[in-house]
Amino acid sequence: MNQYDVAVIGSGPGGYVAAIRCAQLGMKTAIIEKYSTLGGTCLNVGCIPSKALLDSSHHYEDAIKHFEEHGIDIPGEVKVNLEQMIGRKQAVVDQTTKGVQFLMDKNNIDVYEGLGSFKDATHIDIAKADGKTETIEAKNIIIATGSKPATLPFITLDKERIITSTEALKLKEVPKHMIVIGGGVIGLELGQVYKRLGAEVTVVEFMDRIIPGMDGALSKELMKVMKKQKVKFNLSHKVKSVERKGDEVIIKADDKKGEEVTFTGDYCLVSVGRRPYTDGLNAEAAGVKLDDKGRVEVNEHLQTNVPNIYAIGDVVRGAMLAHKAEEEGTMVAELLAGQKPHIDYNLIPGVVYTWPEVAAVGKTEEELKEAGVAYKVGQFPMRALGRARASMDIDGFVKILADKETDEVLGVHMIGARCADLITEGVTAMEFRASAEDMSRMSHAHPTYAEAVKEAALAATDNRPIHV
User: Rounded to the nearest 10 degrees, what angle do helices 451-462 and 419-431 cross at?
Assistant: First the structure.
């Protein structure tokens, strides 16, 4: 029986980063993955493939809507080759997952393909595709089994017309009318992909706004922009049935008045969040406790009730984000090595990869009001930037929330071009407990989108933005 210092169950961003960090710190490490490729949801059917389709569809939209204004004439009709687009997406996925395999080899991490389940607190059975089972022993075990798309109890996912994000990444045709249940990150991103490619897209959301976990100003601005892109929104709608009849999907919902409304399309994307994935883990054999939501219970050190077993990422509490899982994987590895790492969960940024992109870190205005914190707001519109006008990306703004007395930055919220990258400036500033004035006095290159951050900080400091 092979013996290890650490065994990691699951090879997503949390799992493979944990394995690499353990190996770097001198631990003999194994990683177990039930699928034939490494990388988990993020690399195979999540972050990476969805970004590939978002980029491809964005190029197409630019070609048909904006090239002429830029002075680029294309003879003949610009057409979507969906098969090629999906093929390119898959090539990106293949290259990325092979990169993870390379990193496992480079760091001398043993990779086991098969379903890992606990035999007891120090032994893992690995059920392989050929029906054989292998058992390994590990002093410490990290559960990194991630999440799966959630659904509603009355919805039957046929994975053909009533689909999740996984199937939406490999459709054989552009839908005529895609109905998206859920106005969160995944639904809006994939809805925008197919809207660009020619589908009619209708979003049905239970809450009274889209991206409900983010600052209300971001929700309002993103919906305004996507409405201009002809996406239809139905907020405060409670879906109560989803039925397929042939190639047609019929959704019934109650609106905010309690009256029944019907939506009909040829595809229905069910995007109501994700659930922690512990199927087949046999956690009870090791004595590991799960909470009432199916998550693995952990303490502040991500340690379960069984001292040598830890859990990270989507399978534990907190935001289901790849970069949060990576930080947790690193933290557990360093704890096992006797170090004293720390994660500030308030400084884990969130991003929506629509166009314009939406990004945020820290407290929302709603959270500050609820906590009774006295704060001030600085906001600057993207359309006031020369760089934004040059690229025709004028939608959005940067908003900075700072403590009214100390001027410490409490939250940074932005929507606009390249905000997924710009948000790191906010994270860095808050990590070092910068004031809005600190941010305003940093030199920002001109012309850039990042100038909006400086201007918003000037507005928050003493309401003196330069360019508006």
Answer: 50
Per DSSP (E only), the strands in 325-431 are 350-352, 357-362, 375-381, 397-403, 409-416
Q: What is the CA radius of gyration of the chain?
A: 24
Averaged pLDDT, 9-20: 98
The strand pairing partners of 397, in sequence order, are 381, 415
Query: What architecture (CATH level 2) is domain 162-272?
Result: 3-Layer(bba) Sandwich (3.50)
Q: Position of tokens 């996406």?
A: 231
Q: Does the domain made of 3-148+275-343 have the CATH classification 3.30.70.2580? A: no
CA distances from 206 to 133, 240, 253, 269, 272 (A): 45, 11, 10, 15, 10
Measured torsion, CA atoms of residues 425, 431, 436, 440, in degrees rounded to the nearest 10? -40
Distance in angstroms (rounded) separating the CA atoms of residues 307 and 289 = 12
In the chain, which residues fall in CATH 3.50.50.60?
3-148+275-343, 162-272
pLDDT of res. 429 = 98
Judge whether 12 and 41 are in contact, CB under 8 Å.
yes
Per-residue pLDDT reduced to its tens digit, 258-301: 999 999 999 999 999 999 999 999 999 999 999 999 999 999 99
- The number of CA neighbours under 13 Å toward the Cβ of 8 is 37
Q: Is 446 a catalytic residue?
A: yes
Catalytic position from the list 66, 70, 301, 446:
446
Distances (CA, A) of 461 to 404, 453, 464: 9, 12, 8
Q: Which residues contact 208 (CB under 8 A, 6 or more apart)?
A: 235, 236, 256
Write out pLDDT tens, residues 102-144: 999 999 999 999 999 999 999 999 999 999 999 999 999 999 9
CATH 3.30.390.30 segments of the chain: 347-462
Tell me the pLDDT tens digit for each residue of 143-177. 999 999 999 999 999 999 999 999 999 999 999 99
Q: Are 160 and 24 in contact (CB under 8 A)?
A: no
Residue with tokens 């983010």: 214
Q: What is the DSSP letter of 292?
A: T
**For 381-391, how does the pLDDT look when each residue is reduced to its tens digit (9 = 90+)?**
999 999 999 99
Beta-bridged to residue 29, according to DSSP, are 6
Distance of CA 118 to the CA centre of its chain: 29
